[in-house]
Amino acid sequence: MSLIAITEVKKRFGDNEVLKGISIDVAPGEVVAIIGKSGSGKSTLLRCINGLETIDEGSIVVAGAQFLPDEVHLKALRLKVGMIFQQFNLFPHLTAGGNVMLSQMVVKKTPKKAAEAVARKMLDRVGLAHKFDALPDELSGGQQQRVAIARALAMQPIALLCDEITSALDPELVAEVLAVVKELAAEGMTLVMVTHEMRFARDVCSRVVFMHQGRVHEIGAPEDVFANPRTPELRQFLGVQ
Amino acid sequence: MTEFSFWDILRNLLLAARWTVVLSLVSFIGGGIVGAALLFLRIGGRHWLRLLSRGYIQLFQGTPLLMQLFLAFFGLGLFGVDVPAWLAACVALVLWTAAFLAEIWRGCVESIAKGQWEASASLGMGYLQQMRYVILPQALKVAVPPTVGFSVQVVKGTALTSIIGFVELSKAGSIVTNATFQPFTVYGLVALIYFALCWPLSKSSQLLERKLNVAHRNH
Q1: Could you report the per-residue pLDDT of A138-189, keeping only the tens digit for each?
Q2: Could you tell me how far CA A207 lies from the centroid of its own chain?
Q3: Which of A74, A78, A102 lies nearest to residue B133, judging by beta carbons?
Q4: CATH number where B181 lies
Q5: Chain B: closest CA distance from residue A102 (Å)
Q6: Which of B22, B34, B30, B150 minimizes the C-alpha distance to B86?
């Protein structure tokens, strides 16, 4: 049974239809990379899965939680899928530990002590146990992104959505973040990631989705998609003839 | 004819300045409370509440404070309500301050990056939780310098209440001038007292801005 079932999803911004009927099923433990040019709708699709954008047609079901745009359903959905953003979006007024603790205490009503224990564990998991008391300002981009991952993990999601999480990082910081993601994948976390890191997609992902003009253009195992692109659009995107 | 010493003049002005301070405080605190209510209607309320709040703000920002004072003082009198000058002054200044503070604070809330809303939403927080734990703590920090800066406008705004007969610093100035025939000395002192009230406020606004490091908080 699929963990995330996206069926015939359409999304319009005014007259501009950015998703023109997308259907993807993600199985538990799968790591799916979504690639494509900017404007192809890949980020929008990811944001729809988390309910940051509403959809106009179709359905999105995550482990039995149907996407409906009211606060109760949204909350149920968001407790199941965590999201990591390109710009990290850490809360600048809280320490790294505070960032990881906040939603546990506020949303899940976890007592402070227990939330702190989870936060320390999660920060340790991303290799930042020693930065518990550091403010986001005092961390490098790569460290901030790892705190963001720890923050999402603390809610114990069953899937993580990663929206170009290394695109705002200096090249030398990309590796540390991808290493964390790779570890998560190895532990069996379900991941859907929009990415420009083709090598990472090839090495780590179980499936690659190529989106073009609001449609799923090609989908398949990375070996196939990268080695034998069938359509001229994907060939052009990958820069092969 | 009685002679007035410099000390007589200054003493009377200082006594009246107390009322300027009291009126400023009442306006600022009352305006802050009403302004906060307006802010929440303006950004979070239902559609018609938002329109109402916006209309209120535009009305009070778009008319002179003097007219608002006249309306509070004479307008209610038309309905047979006898409004004392101090009450009219307080009401008008509170409402006027509220309109400006609500708008200043709205700017502060909206200056918080969209990503903060999205990140907190993606963690499952509801609107009020996002506001309380993520947005407001950041917005408050941004709001401190302009709010303190605006308090200077409130202090100077109290001068207008002299026209409806509330005896604060400016009104005392004209009364003392009429008795002493020394307008330059008296109004000079009045101006200096206003300056002594306002300058520390402006200065602290500047210091707070630097201390809270508002301009560079995301770098």
Answers
A1: 999 999 999 999 999 999 999 999 999 998 899 888 999 999 999 999 999 9
A2: 15
A3: A102
A4: 1.10.3720.10
A5: 8
A6: B22
Question: How many domains is chain A partitioned into structurally?
Answer: 1
Mean pLDDT (whole number) for B11-16: 92
Q: How many CA atoms lie within 13 A of B38 on its CB side?
A: 27
State the total domains in chain B: 1
* Residue carrying structure tokens 């007024």: A93
CATH number at residue A133: 3.40.50.300
Per DSSP, the three-state class of B217 is: coil
One-character DSSP codes across A82-108: EEE-TT----TTS-HHHHHHHHHHHHS
Domain range for A87 is 4-238
Residue B1 falls within a domain, yes or no? Answer: no
CA distances from B145 to A55, A145, B14, B200, B202 (A): 41, 31, 28, 13, 9
Q: Which residues of A touch B113 (CB under 8 A)?
A: 87, 89
B219 in any annotated domain: no
A101: closest CA of chain B, how far (Å): 11
Residue B195 lies in a domain: yes
SS3 B141: helix
**With a CB-CB cutoff of 8 Å, which residues 40-99 of chain A face chain B?**
50-52, 71, 74-75, 78-79, 82-83, 85, 87, 89-93
**What is the predicted pLDDT for the residue at B216?**
53
Q: Is the pLDDT of residue B219 over 70?
A: no
- Alpha-carbon gap, residue B24 to A23, rounded angstroms: 62
Of the CA atoms within 13 Å of residue A230, those in its CB half-sphere come to: 10
- At B81 the pLDDT is 80
CB neighbourhood size of A90 (10 A) = 26
* A13 lies within 8 A of chain B by CB: no
Domain, as residue range, for B139: 6-212
Q: Which amino acid is at A60?
A: I
- Separation in Å, CA B162 to CA B19, B168, B184: 11, 7, 19
Tokens of A99: 């960032």
Residue B84 lies in a domain: yes
B118 touches chain A (CB under 8 A): yes
Tokens read off for B38: 């307006």
Q: Using a CB-CB distance cutoff of 8 angstroms, which residues of chain B are in contact with residue A71?
A: 126-127
Q: C-alpha A34: how far from its chain's center?
A: 10
